[in-house]
Structure formats: C-alpha cells, structure tokens
C-alpha cells in the first residue's frame, strides 16, 4: 500500500492528484504538541531516509518534539539516502541512530552533513540521491565539502505559510515516485525555469498547481508498506 503523509490543510487539488497516482493520503493533524501553524506539518513529526517510495520513515513520538526551536526541529532532517542533512546537535537520537545504519548503497550508513539550519527539510527540496535545491547559504556552504552533491541555489521566500512572514520551498515539496511535486504555483517563483531545468536534468518530472499560491505544508512524504 502506498501512503502519502500531508497536512490536513493541503489543498484538495494536491490531494486528488496524489490519489490519481495511486497514493492514499494520510492527513497530519495534532494539537498541543508544537506551535499551531506547524502542528499539521509532516516534516515536524517524521523523517524519510531516502528518495524512494520504499525508503523507511522514522516517526516521532509525542514526547520527542515540543514547542519552539529547537524542540520542534529534532525530526526536520533532510535525507537523500546517500546524505543526511541536519543540525546534528539537535537531531533526535533515535533518528540519528536509524540514519547511521541505513543506506541502500553503503553498509556504514548515510554520510552526515552537519548544517546550522535546524529546519533543514523545510529549507531543502530533495531531488535525488545527490541533488538538492535550497536557498540556505549555510546548507550550500556545508555541501561544498562534498563535490558529489549537486546544489541548485534559489531565492528565499516566495512561499506562503500561515502565521509566518514566509514559508520555505522545501516545505512546499516532496519526491513522489519519479516526480518532484510542489504544492501550488511554482511558476510564480522567480527561479521557476532554473528549478524546472534542474529537476528535468535528473530525469524526473516536475509537477505544480497553478490554481493556488505556492504554500508550505511541511513537505509531502511518501511511505510504502
């Protein structure tokens, strides 16, 4: 069974599109665990260890996360299956252990990339095993130590997130099968053409929805059972 975890506030257009691909949407909704604007964001409560549908997803328990930074960021790592990106000083120990033992290609687990940004998945579009999109210069600097990582730098902002001045492009996105899906009108982003070309150059499709504003919903996370 193919599931996809999305915010309870996700647009119905996205929801129906995911169903058309054969995925069963699972709404995330919590109360009294983290700040309300992100209380339905999947990437606060789970982390997927790779880009493939069958990559394992590690789930937080209710006591793992809490109000405010860094308590609400301890599961917000970004993983390609080759690399694990996070501010390692705040990473949940159980997640860190799982990442250290998992890799489809390396018996020693993923390579850890320590970044300053605790909200790493929010800030990063995971494209494939070696390719990411981000606006965060600290993440970009950390990636410069790994020449095999392909990074597309884009402008910050241009995403809506209720309750905040701006959202984050990683939180608007998700790798679903052979597609990178954006929740809303990616075409309105000033780096649209560069993003589109970058994704297509990796042999993947890029999907967006012009009917509504590009919106941060805490990522789109698939899980195959």
- Gyration radius, to the nearest Å? 16 Å
Q: How are the strands of the largest sheet arranged?
A: 2-1-14
Principal-axes geometry comes out as globular
- In terms of DSSP E residues, the strand content is 15-25%
C-alpha end-to-end distance: 5 Å
Helix content: 10-25%
The largest β sheet comes out as: 3 strands, mixed
Q: What's the β-strand tally?
A: 14
Helix and strand composition category: alpha/beta
- Rounded mean pLDDT is 94
One letter per element, helices H and strands E, the order comes to: EHEHEEEEHEEEHEEEHEE
Note the total helix count.
5
Give the uncertain stretches in residue-range form. Answer: none
Topology overview:
Elements: E1 2-7, H1 12-20, E2 24-28, H2 42-45, E3 46-48, E4 57-59, E5 78-79, E6 83-86, H3 93-101, E7 111-114, E8 124-128, E9 131-134, H4 137-143, E10 150-153, E11 173-176, E12 179-182, H5 192-200, E13 205-207, E14 221-224
